[in-house]
Amino acid sequence: MQKGGVGKTTTAINVAVSLAELGLRVALLDLDPQANSTKGLGVDMGPDDVSMFEVLIDVEEDRVPLADALVKSKYGVLVGAAHRAMRRLERYGLGPSGYARFSRQVLELDVDVVVMDCPPNLGELTVAALAAADSVLATVLPGTDEIDALLELQRSVRETQEGLNSRVSIDFVIATIYEGGTLVAKDVRSSLKSEWTSEYLGEVSKTVRVKEAKHARVPLVLYAPETEAAKDYRRIAKELNERMPVHV
Ligand SMILES: Nc1ncnc2c1ncn2[C@@H]1O[C@H](COP(=O)(O)OP(=O)(O)OP(=O)(O)O)[C@@H](O)[C@H]1O
Ligand SMILES: [Mg+2]
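Structure tokens for the assembled complex are given below, as produced in the milestone run.
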């Protein structure tokens, strides 16, 4: 999703790890130059390690195939790590066949599911993700302008549908950092339930343990498995598994 700080990275990490726990082979591609999901999965990048930057660059001599760029994290998920250098891609683009090449490589990966974490804008890297994806999972942070942000995302997805990738659609919506007691949260929940009835997979509770887990660089579902938020993410992963074409 294009909005910042709405739980995209926390969701990508915890859904990916929960899907792997169910027995699926999962790859998480970190397409955000901030590299938060790379860090959150405890992956350390050395100076010579290959990242998504080398996968996506326009310069053929320096390019590395996606399958060769994945590293195994401690938590059973393969990671396509992000690097700050990816800001350059955001500025100069992926080149004329960049989207198609990336999309083909994502489809050909020898895994059951590919999770892509997007940066908080609708730039080149988010478009690359939309071009390669079958489904978008939109995270909505209950607040006054959040439904509008979702509609804006829907416009971008529709544009991608008409041009780069006819398969993609917003198939899943969740409410994140959810505070059940607040009026605004209840409002957002009821509008999501009525306007995204079949896509809405429920809420992820707010908990301070998310920040602690981030600091420890351990996914919440393993760091604090007993929290409501961890249970929410495992439930969402189960639901996703059931709705996916390949499932266990
Ligand atoms: N369930 C939760 N409870 C409490 N805090 C949370 C929860 N989920 C996420 N957060 C916190 O909210 C902030 C934003 O979350 P996150 O990084 O997942 O969002 P994002 O959409 O990926 O942000 P960005 O747009 O910067 O990439 C982080 O500090 C994270 O620790
Ligand atoms: Mg993020």
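The longest strand covers residues 169-178. The two ends are 27 Å apart (CA to CA). Further analysis is deferred to the final report.
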